[in-house]
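Researcher: Let's try something more involved. This one mixes different molecule types, so please make sure each is placed in the same coordinate frame as the others.
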Amino acid sequence: MPQDGQTPRGASKPTENVTSLGMASTDEELVARSMGGDLDSFNQLVLRWERPIYALAYRVIGREDDARDVCQETFLRAFRALGGFKGQAKFSSWLYRITLNLCRDWIRRQRRQPVAQAPEGVDLLDLATETTPAESIEDLVARRELSHAVARAMASLPDEQRTAIILKEYHGLTFQEIADLLDCPLSTVKTRLYQGLTVLRRQLAGAGLTGDSLTGRS
Amino acid sequence: MPTKCDSEQLVSYLYDDLSGEDAAAFERHLRGCAACREDLAGFQGLRATLKTWAPPQPDLALTIADTRAGAHPGAAVHAHAHPHAPAHPHASWRAWWTPAAGLAAAAVFVLAAASALAHVEIRVGSDGFSVRTGWNTNPAPASTVVPSPAPGVDLARFDASVADMQRRLGELEAESHKPVIPSAVRMVSTGTANHMSDTEMLTRVRDLLAQSESRQQRELAIRIGQVVRDVDAQRVADLSRIQQGLGRIDAMTTADAAAHRELANYVITSTRQQK
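Model: All components are placed in one shared frame. Result:
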């Protein structure tokens, strides 16, 4: 289940949608109706999953516009290939797999390490819209800087480690689901996570984030 | 019970993926292993830090629109990303876009025709007679460009030619007063009295639309740039004022603290003297 506010819209649970009649439609039900030619059902799935898919694409390739393109292409491919979806895996896992394949293609085309978009300056006007009554502008700036530092550190990781961390940390997939998506053994997933987290910890400490920050006491 | 450090166990424990028995065994290991304890604490803190990395929140509003009636998955489809989410998530963009585009095209069409009619240029030269329309800067009146006959030219033929030109001029003038838009567009495009096919006319209209759009984009970019500069200047000024205000508050606070400290010292000293 997506962990960071990327919960599918219109759903109380990731695979359910509450209709106007109070009835819940699961992903599987919507998929079945879509396969029968009901376009509205598929568009409900799109509405439900577009943000998590966009978030995944953005974190993997690090560019807003390209992430949007990947997101759009993911749903187009899913719709075209819906007839071949047999339901062995969850619909969301199937979408994640398509997205990761597209991201991999994108990275291959770019022939360079993806760099997360992290603006150099901190725009207080942008930040002002995010201010909550309990959060001062200083806190907001600090949070934004921390976010940029995390984005930079993530961009420095090898693709396999970054993808494993993103799927686990931000999308809440199980180790087994990640192993299935990445076509690797369970132990490899855990090793990649351990190595990636170790590098991230060192990078963030090197970027001036103290041990207190990394132990959540800041 | 793990007796040596196991990174996979550590990761499983970190993400709460160990069964009760395995978790208890790992906790026993943790009690005797400072390195794993440090790793675990560091990773737990790191996980909290990672939560701060939030992606942008774009207004995606993607919808799949089937271009074939009655088609099913696998048919030709298009995905539309709206700049702003529609009130109804499944409403087709064509519902509002098509009339707007049609009206805009019609407006440009009429404007182009009117412009052409308003800028008719008639030229009589040594190369014959021509009519041009458009945005030429120096239209030459017909009377000023009638050439003198070259030596050896038959004057009778020349007079006949001039008479013929005058007749055709009269016809064209009469024709130009008729509100026939297609002919006006043809003139805009060719600069001569040649007729234009529908395809060419369509191409011309599209060109006009593209030029208009390009001009509007440039103007919009200029205005946006100006707004950004203004906002940036205001932001810098505001930040400067905030910094000055903070400086003053800091100075006042420091002075107050010093006064309080002095007062406290005086009270303490006085108390000791009384004792």
